[in-house]
Structures are given as structure tokens and as C-alpha cells.
Amino acid sequence: MGKSFSHLPTFSRQSKKEDTESIVAETDRKTLENTDEVQGNNGEPSSHVPYVEFVGRENITCPSCQGTGRIPRGQENELVALIPYSDQRLQPQRTKLYVAVAVVISLLISGFAIFFLFPRSIDVEHVGIKSAYIIDDKKDYRVILKITNILNVTNYNFYSISITDLNVQIVFFNEVLGTVNIKNTTVFRPLGGGQIFYAVTATLDDLGMYHYCTMPEIKVHNIVISIQATVTAWYLSHSEQVSVDAYQYVDCGSNTTHLHSPYYPPQDKHLQVMLS
User: Fold this and answer.
1) Contact 124, 228 (CB under 8 A)
2) Residue 55 CB coordination number (10 Å)
3) CA 267, CA 199: separation in Å to the nearest integer?
4) CA distance 155 to 254
5) pLDDT per residue over 14-25, tens digit each?
6) For 195, what's the count of Cα atoms within 13 Å in the CB-facing half-sphere?
7) How far apart are CA 76 and CA 5, in angstroms?
8) What's the pLDDT tens digit per position in 101-110?
9) Cα–Cα distances in Å, from 76 out to 48, 79, 82?
């Protein structure tokens, strides 16, 4: 038995390494031969580089070769793969649809933003006189009226507004009887409204008007005053002034505790003509 085993050939431990080196050398030789074949007659290299597939554990599948090639591991960000012009990856699907949808959505968002943020008008209306208290100053022959008025404010915007300033004048025959300026912040909710109550003092210091207001033979001592109010509203970093003019009957001879609606004179006649 021992004699028969002596005829078997002996292999060294470096045989696998030598075989691997021989395979790599053969691959390099074929690469050089293929490179020489693609050169032209004038000795210039052609633009077409032959495909060489790497084998072994130190390579990965080429990410842009549709799984038909392999490249050395660690060089994914250095090597450049040539993709045919007809490759589907160069022809994105539904590009026009995506662009159209994006444009439509942008237009809708812009339209809604303009619709809701566009400034709208603020309506200010004089409701009337809530109360009027008369003070008879017999020493100076004058009548003092302490009048409480009501303003209606309507907000047609889709956001809140703030009334920051209110300026009111009481005018009688082009003479200013009293003024008031109120600086107070009153907030009105979107698409809502409310009322503003304010008091103003008017003084009748004319001697003839004093005798008229204190004459006992007259039961009702009505006079027509002009109420000129200017309201300052603040919204969206923007201020707006709204003016309202109204005429009002006031009894200058007795106190009034019930609401008096405003008086609207005819458009074709002047107020002084009516009173004359």
C-alpha cells in the first residue's frame, strides 16, 4: 500500500494562488489585445472601449448596467457608465402630467390666497343717539348737551380688524359745538361686526339758542346737528380711514333716554334752507 501511494503527484500549497495569478494575467492580455484591435489604421484609438467583466469577491453589480455588468467595489462614485439614448431611464414617464398638476395646484393656492387676503371694505354706520342729557347753565347763558352715540361697524374681510382711533365732531350751522377723540383698540372678528358707543359734549353758547332751548312755552326744542365721525381701522399692517356723516334731531330743552334714529335731509335741498 505504501508503495502505491508513492506514485501520486505532489501539489504545493501555492497552486491556487498561481492559478489565480494566471487568470488575472490572461485577462490583462486579452484586454490589451482587444484594445489594439479597436485602433484604426492611422494608429488612433477608437471611441468604443471593449467591455471587460470583473470576477471575484472584490466587485459589485454595476448599478447602471441593468444588472449585466460588474465594477470594482469602492469605485461606484468614480466610474462613469454610458447609457444608451433609447434607455427608458432617460425618458421620464408622465412628466407633462406632473408639471400640469403642479401648475394647477400652484394656481389654486394663489387664487385662494388672493381671495381670502384681498382687502375688502369696512362699513361704518351711524345708528343714532342713545341718550342726551341737558345742562342749563344760567350763569353763562348756555346749554350743554352730553350726547351718547352709537356706531355700527361691519367687517367684510376674512380676517380680524382693529379700530384704533375714533374722531367725532358735532356741527351746528357750520359751528363746531364739540369734539371727541378716542384712542382705543376694539377688535372685530372676520365677517362680523359690532357697535361702538361713545360720548361727546356739545355746548350751545349762543344767546338766541339759549332762549329757544329754555323757553317753557315750547314743549319740544328740536335742533338738527351734524355728526361727522372718522374711524381708523388697522389690518394686515395697513390702516384705513372710513368717514361717516349723519344728521340728528336733538331736543335741547329736555333729557332724552331713548334711541333717536338719524335724520336724512332731502338731497335737493340744503339743511339751512329747511331750517329757515
Assistant:
1) no
2) 10
3) 29
4) 36
5) 444 455 455 445
6) 10
7) 52
8) 999 999 999 9
9) 21, 6, 14
